[in-house]
Amino acid sequence: xxxxxxHGIRFVFILAIQVLALNQIELGLGIQLMVYPLFIxxxxxxxxxxxxxxxxxxxxxxxxxxxxxxxxxTSALLTFAYVRPIxxxxxAPRDGYDPLLETTIFAMxxxxxxxxxxxxxVIHHFWFFLMEMFKMNELLFVFQKVSLSAxxxxxxxxxxxxxxxxxxxxx
Amino acid sequence: MRNFLAFIRRFRVLFFFALLQGFALSxxxxxxxxxRSQYLTTASVVSGAIFEVRNDLTKHxxxxxxNTNLQKENIALxxxxxxxxxxxxxxxxxxxxxxxxxxxEYIPATVINSTHDKRNNYFTLNIGSKQGxxxxxxxxxxxxxxxVIHNSSDHYxxxxxxLTESINIDVMIExxxxxxxxxxxxxxxxxxxxxxxxxxxxIKKWAKVVTRGGGNIFPRGIxxxxxxxxxxxxxxxxxxxxxxxxxxYTSLQRAYVIKNILRTExxxxxxxxxxxxxx
Lengths: 171, 279
Prior knowledge:
- The structure holds two protein chains of two kinds.
- By secondary structure, chain A is mainly alpha-helical.
- Chain A contains eight helices and no strands.
- In chain A, helix 3 (49-67) packs antiparallel against helix 4 (72-90).
- Helices cover 25% and strands 26% of the residues of chain B.
- The radius of gyration of chain B is 23 Å and the shape is globular.
- Chain A binds chain B through residues 20, 23, 26-28, 30-32, 49-50, 53, 57, 60-61, 64-72, 74-75, 78-79, 82, 131-134, 138, 141, and chain B through 13, 16-17, 20-21, 23-29, 31-32, 39-42, 44, 46-47, 50-51, 54, 113, 115-120, 122, 124, 158, 186-187, 250.
């Protein structure tokens, strides 16, 4: 039950931050802040792929319904959720993941977080902007958007964890 | 059969992913061009209501600027009232004749949600079909054209703004009357492009561009912007024109929806034209 309450609160919270605050910040140069993949990242490691994809679909559809993107965020988040187990397996620690630990930056360390979440968020952003353009001749513009947006989204994700994740209880 | 089931089981994750992904992408690709429902947009009741609350909180940020604009508009309207004219010819009496019929009505609206940084930007208005808004109506503000209604629910509507890829509003250069289509390349919210102007004529810089009034959406003469730059398109006899929009879409709050009373009449008439059998 604890699991449902915790992730339920997180779901609403991340949805509200993304829709009411970050969607309104428009920095120019095609920069777009997207932090909602953090919710999928922080789900337990041992969670199966089917619930993972279903949750990604629900969160993506919720964000789409608030930002007039008609399924674009859903598509990118599904890709994120599908790739997550593959990347987790590829970069697993020597003796596997501790099922008690959450995959926050405090529990896993900055290096792990930079490697895994950095890679995942670049994949997510690339897919998002590629589908948004849907044209190969604007590929350079897609790369510009990804290379500017992904680092900033990444920093905001770290910032959110420092603000809202209880550091001592995670250790 | 057993092999087939084993095959399905082996790739079941991939199938599930492809199913959901296909669903999401098909929604995206169809809804951008042909909107059918309002469930996944800000025209739905839940998200519309939430954005209305947020707009109540944040609308004061641009209050002084908006007030100045409204004041300017009021002055322009007051100047056109009969009371602000001196009567020069006392012999004429105005009677309600049949020479002038009202063709356009305007519905005031507030923009409660907007973006300007995406590839296709949509604005949400706080009025809907209960107030008479329908798909395909034009939207403009006191400074210039805003877009076309894309989708509307009972109390909210979504505008496809000038900052979308396929907005295609009929525009013309005010002085010379050359016409073309308004487009947006997705990079700068202050600048758009005008396509389809042939390069056998000269085009003056900073010439005013207004709506053409075709397509029964906008009346003629709503400002769009000014020509900032002209260039040559390789291999085509057309100008590549960059416009500076007269409206600043990044701080837009008030807009008007245009209701064309004679729209059905014009459409009925145009539908009587026989189709080209060669097509």
